[in-house]
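Form 12-C: Joint structure prediction
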Amino acid sequence: MPELPEVENVRRSLSDALVGRTVESVRVRRRDVVHGSARPPDLLRGCRIRSVRRHGKQLALMGAAAHDRQVDRCVCVHLGMSGSLQAVPAHRRGGGPARPVPHTHVTWTLDDGTQVRFVDPRRFGGIWTFADSNELVQHRWRALGEDALVIRPGSLLQSFQRTQRALKPALLDQNLVAGLGNIYVDELLFNCRLHPLTPCRTLTLNRIQALVRCMRQLLHRATRCGGSTVRDYVDGHGRPGHFQNAHQVYGRAGQSCVRCRKPLRRQIVAGRGTVFCPGCQALGGR
DNA sequence: CACCACCCCTGGACGC
DNA sequence: TGCGTCCAGGGGTGGT
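Section 2 - Result
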């Protein structure tokens, strides 16, 4: 389940393989994963890739039409739960017709023979096409909150003050802060000793500052470790992450808390499986 | 506007 | 071995 650290690793690895290359052809196997125009030129055919951007959990391939450098193109990719975007170099595809990877919905072929494949078995992800970066921001990224790596305590304080919600559902809300998912919210709340059901309203600026520091540190550490591979996440080169080995609560229900040795509890919060330490993360805090 | 329940989807775990 | 059932979960949508 790609969250910010995983998506950032996909972004970096894809940048290596894509930036500066030109898209020679695009193949769409499932039209319904593409939102907006699925015409090959709108899916970057004939474009030179200028950059790979990220906001929260979303990626965007920014291209410039080769025949007219003024014409921009932009393809936004959301990996959802089970999506992956991998660049497979020509030499790794070998000579013979390798059996196709199931659920490969869109394939781009670059001028050096590299294939970029969007694979998404559960189809919780998708692809959105835009004329340029303005459209991307207007129609898709503007509604999102600030990216979790750059958000400042002040904006979080503002959001927290006008919501009645608990911390966990608020932090999972991409319109409030973009990039956190179930894994990193649980890890974050454990790190800063906050109960998932703490009402956002009750957090002082001081505690929000600590929360933001914790969040950046956690996300940076996880990113450096290549992200978390819980089931099948891999980056743009097919490499798994290893931050799952450093998880302190996620996936550890019933095991003992690394701080106080009490058993970790699992409870449904905001409809999501939530693991926390009832000892360290008391409601009301300390 | 704020919030929540519901639904989308597949593969893996588990029980018989 | 094989089949059925349950569950995970991001986020869009529609209802309250």
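Section 3 - Comments
Residues 205-224 of chain A form the longest helix (20 residues). Residues 1, 3, 57, 78-82, 122, 124-125, 172, 174, 181-182, 231, 271-273 of chain A lie near DNA strand C (CB under 10 Å from a C1').
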